[in-house]
Amino acid sequence: MIKKQKIFIALLVMVFFITFAPHALALAGGLHGGGVTGGGGFHGGNGGVHSSNHDISSIEGGVSNKVMLMLSLVGLGIIIAISAVIKPKVIYTEGVHIEDIQLAHTIKKQFLSIQNAWNTQDISRVSQLYSEKLYAKHTKILLNYLDKRKINHTEKIEIEGLSRLYWKKSNTFEIDISFKAIDYVIDKDTQHILKGLPNAQQKFKQRWTFVIDEEGMKIDKIKEFRI
Q1: What is the pTM of this model?
Q2: In terms of domain of life, where is this protein from (predicted)?
Q3: 52 contact partners, CB below 8 Å, separation of at least 6
Q4: Please, how many CA atoms are within 13 Å of residue 38, restricted to the half-sphere of its CB?
């Protein structure tokens, strides 16, 4: 959702400048008070139409500056939108870097349980480990794979690091998990590999957000990084 919001804001800024900048720049660029209005441009009677090279060059210069500024703003907006989509790059961390050993054990256990359930395309057996929001999101993803006759396999998972434990609230915390796994997608009917490497582990790093309620500890959000 955050990524979508960033993209929307960037596009909104682009639309704002493209829509309103020409009007604002027209007032500031010399196109008034003698160019087209009042007594400066068109005269009645015998005078006809008056113009000069200076007026034309001023207008051309103003238009050129506006076009360049608009193109610069559009380019900046595109860069912002792209950067919002691309996953941030972080350092892969090995070792457990949190003091609470019991919490580390629980995090690892729930992480592996959810990943293993995902590998079987049935997360209903670990629904108690999910918040309602994330469970609905992951269920939708799996159903979408099913509709497209695709299967996402996540195998041979090895957790190599826990780091950056951060308590956002008294009942909400984040933890970065570095792990290796074989991750790939196949066509259910043909068994052809559509994405990923079925014979090689890859390194991953994710930030999991957990919430704690009367039922226990539940995963509420997962953010993936580039490494």
Answers
A1: 0.63
A2: Bacteria
A3: none
A4: 6
Would you list the domain boundaries of the chain? 2-85, 95-225
Distance CA 166, CA 210 (A): 10
Question: Can you give the pLDDT at residue 25?
Answer: 34
**Element (DSSP H or E) covering residue 22:** helix 2-28
Backbone φ and ψ for 221, nearest 5 degrees, come out as -160, 145
Tokens of 179: 């792990």
Beta strands in 20-81 (DSSP E): 42-43, 48-49
- Per-residue pLDDT for 70 more than 80? no
CA angle 209, 212, 213 (to 5 degrees): 140
Query: For 24, what's the count of Cα atoms within 13 Å in the CB-facing half-sphere?
Result: 8
Decide if 15 contacts 8 (C-beta within 8 A): no
Pairing label, strands 150-169, 95-96: parallel
User: Residue 208 pairs with which residues in a beta bridge?
Assistant: 175, 222
* The two three-digit tokens of residue 140, written as one number: 């939708």
| Residue with the two structure tokens 């997962």 | 222
What are the pLDDT digits (tens) for 168-207?
999 999 999 999 999 999 999 999 999 999 999 999 999 9
| Residue pointed to by tokens 């200076």 | 54
Residue 72's φ and ψ, nearest 5 degrees, are -65, -40
Spell out the CATH class of 95-225. Answer: alpha beta
Distance CA 98, CA 96 (A): 6
